[in-house]
Amino acid sequence: MRVPKHIEELLEDLAESLQIPPSRYEAAERSYKSVGDWLHREASSLRQADPQVYIQGSFRLGTAIRPVSDAEDYDVDLVCELSASKARVTQAQLKAALGRELKAYAAAHGMDDPEEGRRCWTLPYADSAQFHLDTLPAVPDGARKRLLLEQRGLSTEWSDTAIAITDRDHPNYRLVSDDWPHSNPKGYWEWFRSRMKVVFEARRLKLAMEARASVEDIPEYKVRTPLQSAVQILKRHRDMMYVERSDEKPISIIITTLAAHAYNQEPTIAEALYSILDRMEEYIEYRQGVAWIANPTDPAENFADKWQEHPERQAAFFEWLEEARADFAAAAAGVTRDQALSGLETHLGKRLVEAARAKRPAGGNNALARVLAGAGARARIVLNPAHRQRPPWDPATQGDVEIERATVARNGFRPEDFGSDGRSLPKHASLTFQADTNVPRPYKVYWQVVNTGLEAERVNGLRGGFDEGVITAGKLTRRESTLYRGSHSIECFVVKDGLLAARSGQFIVNIQ
């Protein structure tokens, strides 16, 4: 999908404002490597188990986002993979062994004791660090996972890096058993990266060339792709929409998985975001009437397994998807960057919108924005009164349309040209607007007239809807009259195949 340049720039600025600062990545990396070094020290009770500590979750995927407020911490999810056998140790014993070492680490570094959670240990850092480490005990389980998938005739492409993990709510938590909960964060990252491989590798190579370094010297967290940025924006939209209903909000793994499936190596954030929103629900299967979002590394696992038990969560996902589509479609149809940002504020948050707004001056290359930048407050009010309806068509830019001429005539005098937001016109005059477009035929033309002021309101003449227009001698022509005092607007829309192919931007008409 093609979108105006100012919308692409807006989305780039939103993504940049959501991005975790490199210093946070580096601090988190130092911290988890420090934990790994501790577990490998000579006195470590786990040294013989060759502990491998690595990052997982959104930090690994490059989709972590800044907290909504400065009071919140970053969650850094780790795995501590130990060379142990499920035939000799229980989940409870493995978790307790890691807990003892983490408590010793905390004491040696002047930190508070780690807190035990259902699956992992949480190691809090000082407030200034603004993050904590959630460390999950695990043992390798690739061979067993491969066998189970083969027996069911399912793909084993990512199974070799599967792990068995601890969960104190699991029925075998305190028993020696081969049946443990499972996960595969390494496999999921490899799958996720495969979905953006072309763009990821090209951008990593570009960074390496700019730094005159080898590709391997460029940390993965420094590579940003449109898929990662789109997921970040969608996650923040989800977070703000469900502030008061956190139990129902769509979980990140569902959004990330569907987005990665829908991504098709689009080179820009805008193209990626709109493609994802358009196609992501296509990757929800229905097996015997049950919604199924398969874990790419374990097709037998359903990321949406809670939807059947909690149907309100399934409803919430589709509610969010519909709202996200509407919000970003409205943004794409925004005449100016500032108008588009203001429309997104409700579901992205004022703080994020203000951060994005500050990244570049208003107006940019948009011609209408430059006109309005010099206009008075009265003209700006016309842009978006409450009765101005949103375009009902999904945007799919296929060209341009411009109101290239406007004339006013009264009492038999010859028509005179006038410009947008120019001199005030007399009442009871005839207006003619002519627009031109380069959108290929066939198409339909619609005009939107938005009136303001008490005179129009008293006689129910505010309007704000869409009227189908006509094409005269190859021109898109509209005739109106100057009936009400105030500042009003008219805009031309070109619709092709049911999609909004082009819009002119508002032409301001002042009437005395």
Q: Can you walk me through this structure?
A:
Helix 1 packs across helix 14, helix 8 packs antiparallel against helix 9 and helix 9 packs across helix 10. This protein has 512 residues and is α+β, with helices and mostly antiparallel strands. It is 38% helix and 21% strand. It has three domains: 168 residues, Poly(a)-polymerase, middle domain (Orthogonal Bundle), CATH 1.10.1410; 169 residues, Beta Polymerase, domain 2 (2-Layer Sandwich), CATH 3.30.460.10; 125 residues, Immunoglobulin-like (Sandwich), CATH 2.60.40.1930.
Short description, anyone?
The chain has 17 helices and 21 strands.
How is the topology of this model organized?
Layout: H1 5-18, H2 22-39, E1 52-56, H3 57-61, E2 74-81, H4 91-108, E3 115-116, E4 121-124, E5 131-140, H5 142-151, E6 163-165, E7 182-183, H6 185-194, H7 197-211, H8 226-241, H9 252-262, H10 269-279, E8 285-287, E9 290-292, E10 294-295, E11 298-302, H11 306-309, H12 311-332, H13 337-348, H14 350-357, H15 367-373, H16 377-382, E12 401-409, E13 416-417, E14 430-437, E15 444-450, H17 454-458, E16 467-468, E17 470-472, E18 475-481, E19 486-496, E20 499-503, E21 507-511
Parallel strand pairs: 2-5
Antiparallel strand pairs: 1-2, 3-4, 4-5, 5-6, 6-7, 8-9, 10-11, 12-13, 12-14, 14-18, 15-16, 15-19, 17-18, 19-20, 19-21
Helix pairs in contact: 1-8, 1-14, 8-9, 8-10, 9-10, 12-13, 13-14
